[in-house]
Amino acid sequence: MKRILWLVCTIGALSAVCGPAWAQDLKKVTLLTDFLISGTHTPYFAGVAQGKFRDVGLDVTIQPGKSSTDGAGQLAAGAVQFAILDPVPALLAISKGAELSFVAVYWQRNPNGFCYLKDKHPALSFNDLDKVSIGGVNGDSIVITLKALMPGKTLNVITLDGASHNAALISGQVDAISCSVGSFPARAALAKQAGHELGIITLAADGGLKSIGQAVVVPTSLIKQDPDLVKRFVRGYAESVAWSVANPEAAVDALVKAHAELKADATLMVWQAFRPFFSTPGKDWFKFDPASSKATAELADKAYNINVTDAAFNNEFASALPARLLEGKP
Questions:
Q1: Per-residue model confidence (pLDDT) at position 183
Q2: Residue 158, helix vs strand vs coil
Q3: Side by side, which strands form the sheet with 100-107?
Q4: Domain residues of the chain, as ranges?
Q5: Topology at the third CATH level for domain 112-202
Q6: Where are the beta strands (DSSP E) in the chain?
């Protein structure tokens, strides 16, 4: 009966029947984020609020993460079923024996970089980052990526708590902090309030990075044991992202209702800043581009001096999505 209802929902017929039928027997799963909750996580909360996961029979709990490195460890330990992470630390875990698979893309391109105070370092460039102090969380994937892009260079990295990045930068404790184009607007506003102008050096545009930004990661055992569950999650996830891109204000409202500490205007700026990273011209949303997958594996090799391939990037589930979703249409 469950499979029949799933097929009915998938083809879009009798949608009024599907929700209540699934609601009687929802599968509880946990989605782990890469870091503290912010605007970049908008579609997860919008998907829950809009019933996108419920429509595929899932009751999703969103758990804030500490870092992509920690998230890969939690997946490997079986503590959570799904996580959206920077794939480079996950590839490190795979090299150490963790059986993890990537099942859908979140960011097709990497939006990360390093924020700094332009009034203090007006000429700072990518090639100068080994000459200044950099703040990042423990196991910071952005810092790890920088190390891979600057082989032979020694970085002066200071470990910070995730919530203290801006304060450490403005106070002069560090010269730069790991950040992203999404967090930049809010960070820039805070810096301006303190009398500073914020700048950003990005890993892609300034450092030449070609790797995937983030992806949905699952234990490989889950694919073997319950591929239908993975298929349903990827469908609900893709529906959530597409809907949130098309309805940014309403999507952000769902996140802010769940996390009242976030400000709607600032969170909306963050979410809209990430919009260009979900797709690459001429390529499908949510699917892994072979060249980008290979570049990501090569980056992990350089970052950790390991030997991994792109074999963990699995397009089986994204390829099964409706054509409209692969075009980013809700």
A1: 84
A2: strand
A3: 58-63, 27-32, 82-85, 214-219, 100-107
A4: 2-109+211-326, 112-202
A5: D-Maltodextrin-Binding Protein; domain 2 (3.40.190)
A6: 27-32, 58-63, 82-85, 100-107, 112-117, 133-136, 156-159, 176-180, 198-202, 214-219
Helices (H), 259-319: 264-274, 290-304, 316-319
Domain made up of 2-109+211-326: CATH architecture: 3-Layer(aba) Sandwich (3.40)
β-partners of residue 201 are 114
In the chain, what is the greatest distance between 2 CA atoms, to the nearest angstrom? 65
Domains 2-109+211-326 and 112-202 share a fold: yes
Taking the C-alpha atoms of residue 215 and residue 233, their distance in angstroms, rounded to an integer, is 13
Identify residue 266 by its one-letter amino acid code: A
pLDDT of residue 199: 97
The ranges of the chain with pLDDT < 50 are 1-23
Tell me the two tokens of residue 225. 């044991």
